[in-house]
Every structure is written in structure tokens, then in C-alpha cells.
Amino acid sequence: xxxxxxxxxxxxxxxxxxxxxxxxxxxxxxxxxxxxxxxxxxxxxxxxxxxxxxxxxxxxxxxxxxxxxxxxxxxxxxxxxxxxxxxxxxxxxxxxxxxxxxxxxxxxxxxxxxxxxxxxxxxxxxxxxxxxxxxxxxxxxxxxxxxxxxxxxxxxxxxxxxxxxxxxxxxxxxxxxxxxxxxxxxxxxxxxxxxxxxxxxxxxxxxxxxxxxxxxxxxxxxxxxxxxxxxxxxxxxxxxxxxxxxxxxxxxxxx
Amino acid sequence: xxxxxxxxxxxxxxxxxxxxxxxxxxxxxxxxxxxxxxxxxxxxxxxxxxxxxxxxxxxxxxxxxxxxxxxxxxxxxxxxxxxxxxxxxxxxxxxxxxxxxxxxxxxxxxxxxxxxxxxxxxxxxxxxxxxxxxxxxxxxxxxxxxxxxxxxxxxxxxxxxxxxxxxxxxxxxxxxxxxxxxxxxxxxxxxxxxxxxxxxxxxxxxxxxxxxxxxxxxxxxxxxxxxxxxxxxxxxxxxxxxxxxxxxxxxxxxxxxxxxxxxxxxxxxxxxxxxxxxxxxxxxxxxxxxxxxxxxxxxxxxxxxxxxxxxxxxxxxxxxxxxxxxxxxxxxxxxxxxxxxxxxxxxxxxxxxxxxxxxxxxxxxxxxxxxxxxxxxxxxxxxxxxxxxxxxxxxxxxxxxxxxxxxxxxxxxxxxxxxxxxxxxxxxxxxxxxxxxxxxxxxxxxxxxxxxxxxxxxxxxxxxxxxxxxxxxxxxxxxxxxxxxxxxxxxxxxxxxxxxxxxxxxxxxxxxxxxxxxxxxxxxxxxxxxxxxxxxxxxxxxxxxxxxxxxxxxxxxxxxxxxxxxxxxxxxxxxxxxxxxxxxxxxxxxxxxxxxxxxxxxxxxxxxxxxxxxxxxxxxxxxxxxxxxxxxxxxxx
Lengths: 255, 637
Ligand SMILES: Cc1cc2nc3c(=O)[nH]c(=O)nc-3n(C[C@H](O)[C@H](O)[C@H](O)COP(=O)(O)OP(=O)(O)OC[C@H]3O[C@@H](n4cnc5c(N)ncnc54)[C@H](O)[C@@H]3O)c2cc1C
Ligand code: SF4
Ligand code: FES
Fold this sequence. Notes:
Helix content of chain A: 25-40%
Strand content of chain B: 5-15%
Distance between the termini of chain A: 64 Å
CATH superfamily of the largest domain in chain A: Alpha-helical ferredoxin
Number of domains of chain A: 2
Oligomer: heterodimer
Number of helices of chain A: 8
Shape of chain A: elongated
Shape of chain B: globular
Strand order of the largest sheet of chain B: 5-2-1-9-17
Distance between the termini of chain B: 41 Å
Strand content of chain A: 5-15%
Largest sheet of chain A: 5 strands, mixed
CATH architecture of the domain at 266-401 in chain B: Alpha-Beta Complex
Largest interface: A-B, 83 and 83 residues
CATH topology of the domain at 266-401 in chain B: Flavocytochrome C3, Chain A, domain 1
Structural class of chain B: alpha+beta
CATH class of the largest domain in chain A: Mainly Alpha
CATH architecture of the largest domain in chain A: Orthogonal Bundle
Structural class of chain A: alpha+beta
Radius of gyration of chain B: 24 Å
Number of strands of chain B: 19
Largest sheet of chain B: 5 strands, parallel
Number of strands of chain A: 7
Helix content of chain B: 25-40%
Strand order of the largest sheet of chain A: 2-1-5-3-4
Number of helices of chain B: 17
Bound molecules: flavin-adenine dinucleotide, iron/sulfur cluster, FE2/S2 (inorganic) cluster
């Protein structure tokens, strides 16, 4: 078993949305390689509380990489260095004794910082509200097997549906574009027969809302794909662009 | 406390349809005059809020996460049951009903469970229509897998992310109602208290978790879908934020709390690695479809697993339970693991672990097939432990996972407080003393999509409509109680962190009221809980202020409830002098260490009634009558 480590943390501290923030330095001592990154922060926080200081505020819930709550930039990379991994699933065995680690919140205009590492990501909810669903009220559904769906389409839809709505793609993008997030939902529903009736309307409404929220344009740098903890493929963005073009051509914008 | 389960008369198979045909209705134009508060946006809350919105009610919905989509249901991995019988392996509504009653060790209500089995098929239809990408065969039809406690394949799944996909379906339906103006969602908002006016639940007190502001909401009815209380044990598979505040504070306002001692310990979780541990991670039960559980035959055999030859391995589930084998139900499997570890045959650095081995399945089906079925779980295992489960067996150990107990509800899902409905894991209704795998998702969605929309209309149709002002005395009193508690937590200024207390309480519960309980251990626990609670209120340290985003304060407030609730949990465990399902009293076991029920004295629901601060709660009972099923000693051999 490998030995405990001592680390230096440089952490973004910001009292609230209205205040300015700055980086502060903390020592994390006796860090076990079996700890998760957030458990390492828990230990630092316990120590801060003991000393009567404000602990570092950060979001987390499931700590299993599925709820999309955790959100921090570790050494410049959203969710940290391990590919396909949320920061709650990142473990300290990926660091070395003596390392200095910089920890910052998501940085994107549509995600204002609420405190320290916590941001407001409700813009993503509003994009889904704009059209990220299939309109079927409870009790109106046909029998599940009435409509066979090819395994391929269903699997591909699942690849897109795996998005956890964390916003890392936005945080990684120099334009703060939410295209990967939007493309994941548009791709998921658009690949299924149930999603066809609203396909044009959906893509049009979701993109319009995305623009309204102040997310930037996609300039194909693929930073989003490389930080996405669910490995949602940027090919869904290409699909989104095609769907959008069709919707515009069909005059969806005028309806 | 009057406990009337309000079970409709008539044969079991027609109770629910008869209810639906005869219950009171609210006409479409009148629905918009009724307002409903839904606390919780997990499967139960989101499905309820969306369905009520679609029907035309005005819904206000709350969750503590930053988005409704992140409720704890998102983490469910393995799947959801339904009686579709697509594999034609003999499944039926009756069989799903029977398996659930038997799995719950004959401690659940027949009528509720039958209804659950009955609507299970509509859930699958609804979810498919919403675009939930369930796993399919090459022919395009839906496929199933098996879960514990059943001899048929009835579990629908979406890779290892079934809860996520079901919740996103419900969240999207909810989002559609937000867009339609029928539902308002308040995220990062925590319910601190229930407000009861003239004996009816008419509102809640909440805290805005960003600004710290405390305020109230009033409505015609309140629906709690706030999840389970597994985190009382500190270490569990639940999300970090899961807590029992809403249920506990409603209990203190008069709602009966049923069977708090029924807690489920899940057999397949990643073992604890050290003191820093903040939660435990489940490895889905579905893994037991292909993984074989074993430990060395000989005590102290420290050889690496690959070097232990077949004849020195004990596949104890297969030998003890030949007909269910590795798919024995959870309570039985967890206890079997405890037995072998207690005998010194556990594996891993702590000796608290058993192997879950896929080598036979990989040999038979190929690595690719296993990757396809469980790839994300293997990946998660590797991230956490640094070990590759394709090469060496996983190490697993039981952990607190689910709570069958919860607020008591009648057939309408209404608590003992009129107007307070409780759905999902927060209620006690369908799983008796042990829940079968893949049945919680089914229950949450059944409650929310298919039951509450009828029963709430029945309530509105049969009671006098009134919504009090939030300026009324009852609201002001509740706001003051909630805010005084927060001020008190901040003012103690002692020397111990909230987490240190929670960890201490959790360990005490795990050791004394976990997989095995005894009169002695429970009495010890009860004594020590009082001591810990006392110190909590004298020596707690919470930093920061009231009117800001303050996570230490949130935590302390939740832990203050565990300090009280843990006592009720142990009391209930002490009073239930039998073993059943997840409640195992060492004094009551068969010769081969299986749970021994006492149907004569304990075939009932225990419903606890709050009688005031510092006073003994009263234990009421709802007798369980089995009209269709014959109670028998459970056997999975
Ligand atoms: C790791 C894991 C895997 C599982 N896998 C399966 C599976 O494969 N199949 C299966 O059937 N079951 C599974 N379960 C069980 C199942 O996931 C849960 O029982 C179920 O999802 C609970 O749903 P719920 O809607 O009742 O509550 P939850 O999903 O827990 O939602 C609770 C909601 O209440 C809100 N809330 C709570 N308290 C407050 C408050 N005071 N104020 C405001 N809001 C509040 C929360 O914000 C949240 O929105 C699993 C459980 C775990 C832990
Ligand atoms: S696409 Fe990936 S990075 Fe973006 S929100 Fe979804 S999961 Fe997160
Ligand atoms: S805390 Fe849920 S994904 Fe990290």
C-alpha cells in the first residue's frame, strides 16, 4: 500500500455572488491515496471548522459520478486529470506527495459563483424546460413493445442520454458553449421514434434558450468532449447542427 | 392515534379498479383552484408533480439539490421490476405480488402490494413513451434481467443507469409542466417543518439554502417524497445530502412513523477503506446474475484469490441456498456474508469482505459480454479501489442501503395527518421487512404517476377546501421553531464538528442496530445515543452565519434530527421481539441461523406516535391480515 501524502492546495474563495474572490493556500496533510478528491477536501474542511474558519464550500451529492452535482476545476481541467471521471470519483492515488493543486469553480458567464466552488447552473434546467422532453402525459402511453426500436438506435440514444448535466463541457469551452449538453438531449430524443414528432420544434427551442442564457458559440475545439465525464461524443454536436439546419429550413423559427 | 388503512372491500384483484371507479373526482375546471406542495423531486416526487401539473393542479415543488434532476433516485443502477412477462417465463401480476410479499417476510399490506404489481406494467409503457432507453434485444424488443428473490426475469434496465434514465424521464415531464406554468420548482430549498392548521396539513416552512432566508408556503395539500433515512448510519450508499428532516419533523407534528427498525443492508458494496470514508458505493445486485460469491474454506487463508484452488473455496450462497444461489434476497445474502466474516474467513486487508468472482462468466460468455452488461460498474470499481475486476474478483461487503420503514400511510398514501401524503421511500408501505431489488423504483413511480393522482382527488373531493394565509399563527409558530433551532445550533460554539458527531452516532448504530441486533446491544445503543445527543447540544461547533450559504449549518441541522430519530429506530428494534427480513434479532433465529418470525405476536405494523419533547413515544399497531397469501417460513433453499 502506498504512503500518505502532503499536498498544497490553492483554492478559490469567494464569500457570495456579489463579492470578489481570490485564491488562498491550504495544506492538506496525511492524505491517503485511497481517498477520493472530495474526501480529501472533507478532511481539510474538518480541520478548518476546528480552527473556527469557514470551510471550503463545494457541491456534491451522490459521490458516485451520476448526479452531476460535483463541479470544480482541478489544475485547470474541469473534473480534474482523469478522463471520463467526475471529480467525486477522482481518487488521490493520481497525485504525488508534495504536489500543488489549484482548485477553482466552473468559470462561465451563465454560471455565476454563489460561494467558493459553488455555481448556479439553473440555466441548464431552463434549456430542458424549453423543449428537452417528449410530450406524453401520464396514462397516455401505448404498450411498451408495440414499437420495436433497433438495438443500435437505442444504444446510441443511451450514449447521449448518459449526460449528467454537470456543465463541465461549458466550463472547458473558451466560448462557454453549451452545445455538447444540448446535443446530448437532442441526440437522445431525436434518435428514438418517440422523439420524432417534436424533433424540429425541440431543437429550435432549446437552441434559442441556450442563446438567451448567454452561452457562446461552438468553434469546434472539442475541449468539451475531452472533459465530459460521461464521454458524450462531439459527433452529437454535428447531429445537432444538422437537425437545427433542417428545423430552420422547415421554418420552425416562424411558428 | 387512529389507524384506519382504508383498504377497499372486495376481492384483491379488483380493489384498485373498484377504487378508481368510485373515488371522488375534481372536475377539470376546478383542478386549477387547488394547489399542492410536493417536497422532493426524486422518482416519487417528480412523477407526482408532473402528473398533477398535467391534470391541471397548481404545483409547487422543492428539493435541496441545485436541480430537480439530481435527486438521489438518479443513482439507482440495476433496474425496475414489472410483471410484463416478456421472456414468457411464467411471470404474472400475482407472482410479482407474491414475491414482494414473501420477500418482505410477510410484513407488508396485501392490498397495497397487489396494486403496485398491477400498475407496474403501465410504468414501463409510460417510461418508454417518454424516451427512456431501456436495454433491447437485436429484434428491437425490450429485454430483462434477473434480480434477487425472484425466479423469473422481470427487471427492465438501462445499462447500469436505470435510476438516472427513469428520473430524467420524470424530470423532463416535470420540466414540460414548468414551461406550461403548472409547476414551480424551488431548488436549493430545504423544508424545515410541516404546518398543520385545524388538524390538516396545509403548508411547509423552508430555508433558502443560498440566502438563509426562512419562509412559508401554504397549499390545499402537502406531498412528501423526501426519500429514506439510511444516512442516520453515517456510512451508507445514499447520497450525501439524503436526510430524514422532512419525515422526522412531520412526525413531531403528528404523523405516525411506521417500522423505523426495518433497514436494508445491501450485500454488494465496496468495503470501507479508511477513516476518511464519506460514503459507501453500491455494486448493483444485477452483478449477482453472473458473479459468484465465495470466501476461502479455511480461516486465515491469505493467498491471493487466483492461487486458491477450487477445492479450497466456499461458494457459500450456492451451497446454502441451492435454488436461488447467488440470487438469494438481500437480507439473507448480507447475513450470510456476516456469518463467514465473523468466522474469520473474510477477505481483504480488514477481513470484512467476500469475493464476487466473474471468471467463470467471463470464461463462458467472453469478456465482451460482461463488459456490455456491467462495464460501467467495473469501471467504477476500478476508480474507487484501483483494482481491475476482470482480472481478480471484486471484494464486496454489506452496507446500509435502503429503509423500508417510513411515515405510515393508508391505502390513499395519506399519513395520519389529513392532507399529508407520503410517497416513495419516505413512506413505509410496500416492502414489509425487506425490499426486493428493483422494486423501489417501481414503487416510487407507481405512487407518483398512478396512485396519488387518484387519491389526492378523492381527498379534495371529500374534504372542505381551505388554504390558510402564511401570516396565520400556525405558520408563524412553525417558522419561529425552525429559526430558533438554527440559532441554537449556531450559538453552542463548542469544539466538535457536526461530522464527528454523525460518525460516532453512525458507528454506534451499525455496531448495535445493524445486521444483527439483540436486546443487550439495543439497550446499550439507547443509553449511548442519549449521551451523544447531550454532548451534541453542548459541544457542537458550527461556523459561519445564519443568513448565508452555510453547509456546516445545513449538516448540523440534519444531524440534530438523527440524534432524535436514532432513538426511535432502536426502540422499535427493541420492541419487535422477533426476526423478520432486514430486522435480525439474534435471540430469534432458526437452527440454521435464518430469521425466525413470530406471527402470533408481531404480524403487525408498529406505528410510533410523538407525545412531546422528552416524553416516551407511544407504539400503536396496525394488524396485518393475509386474506390471499398464506404466511410461511421464508425459504430460498
Ligand atoms: C446506490 C443506490 C442504487 C439503487 N438502485 C436501485 C435499483 O436498481 N432499483 C431500485 O428499485 N431501487 C434502487 N435503489 C433505491 C431507490 O433508488 C430509492 O429508494 C428511490 O430512488 C427513492 O426515490 P424517492 O423518490 O422516494 O426519493 P429520492 O430520490 O431520495 O428523492 C428525495 C427528494 O427529496 C428531496 N428532499 C429530501 N429532504 C428534503 C427537505 N427537507 N427539503 C426539500 N427537499 C428534500 C431531495 O432533494 C430529493 O429531491 C438504489 C438506491 C441506491 C442508494
Ligand atoms: S455533456 Fe458531459 S460535460 Fe456536458 S453536461 Fe453532459 S455530462 Fe457534463
Ligand atoms: S457528486 Fe454526484 S456526480 Fe459527483
